Amino acid sequence: MRNLLMTVCYDGTSYYGFQTQPGGNTIQDCLEAAIRHLTGEVVKIHGSGRTDAGVHARAQPFHFITSSQIPVERWCLALNARLPADIRVTAAEEVELDFHARRSAKRKTYRYTINANRVPDVFQRNYQLHHPGRLNISAMQKGLSYLIGTNDYTSFASRHSTKASHVRTIDEARIEVDTSLARPESRDQGVVHLYISGNGFLQHMVRIIVGTLLEVGQGKRLPEEMKQILEAKDRKAAGPTAESKGLMLWSVEYD
């Protein structure tokens, strides 16, 4: 038996997230079907984590146990020939049998993208939240800084979260602004990318953080209120959940 670790990227627009759901049409369903078509095996893959419906991934690891002797260097090409065009396996390697894509992960990074130009980008509309109103980016960055550290993030977790503990560690959080497509002498602010890294994330956590930061950017909340929201440990204290389409799993790191 072999344990294969692969990395997949996907456009999540048409899917109900990564993990298998009763209604089907998930990234996991497509990957398992492609493996079955290729090897004849019925396998269960294990992802580095879940993504919600409509969320994308630049690099999401998953692993599975197989008895297939297909050389590791042939897997990407073979699976991609059997996958939809919006899902692509980008890397494959053989790992120790006790390796687990989720439990072995040490750090994850998500990116959330906000188009703060007056006119949305028609080509990036499925990957960006469009917000044409003026945003105070520096206030958003200051508010974000209050979330760094090891904390109970209940205020930024879905009410449906089933995790026994909501304590997580965020070790880095930053905002980058790309003004290359902002029109001169306009109210365009560019494309805002929020990167957030930590040892794990709760259901809807990044999207709730973004929804709350947008209120800070609009002047509806002070940056310092992020600390108070965090300490409240109450979902009602935070802002709305931002749309899923702006979120992308950026990277997952292992030892």
TrEMBL record:
Residues 9-102, 146-255 form the Pseudouridine synthase I TruA alpha/beta domain. Gene3D superfamilies: Pseudouridine synthase I, catalytic domain, C-terminal subdomain, Pseudouridine synthase I, catalytic domain, N-terminal subdomain. GO terms for biological process: tRNA pseudouridine synthesis. Keywords: Isomerase, tRNA processing. Substrate binds at Y110. It is an enzyme of class 5 (isomerase). It catalyses: uridine(38/39/40) in tRNA = pseudouridine(38/39/40) in tRNA. One of its GO terms (molecular function) is RNA binding. The active site is at D52. Its EC number is 5.4.99.12. InterPro entries: PsdUridine_synth_cat_dom_sf, PsdUridine_synth_TruA, PsdUridine_synth_TruA_a/b_dom, PsdUridine_synth_TruA_C, TruA/RsuA/RluB/E/F_N. Homodimer. Formation of pseudouridine at positions 38, 39 and 40 in the anticodon stem and loop of transfer RNAs. Belongs to the tRNA pseudouridine synthase TruA family. This is tRNA pseudouridine synthase A. It comes from Paenibacillus lentus. The gene is truA.
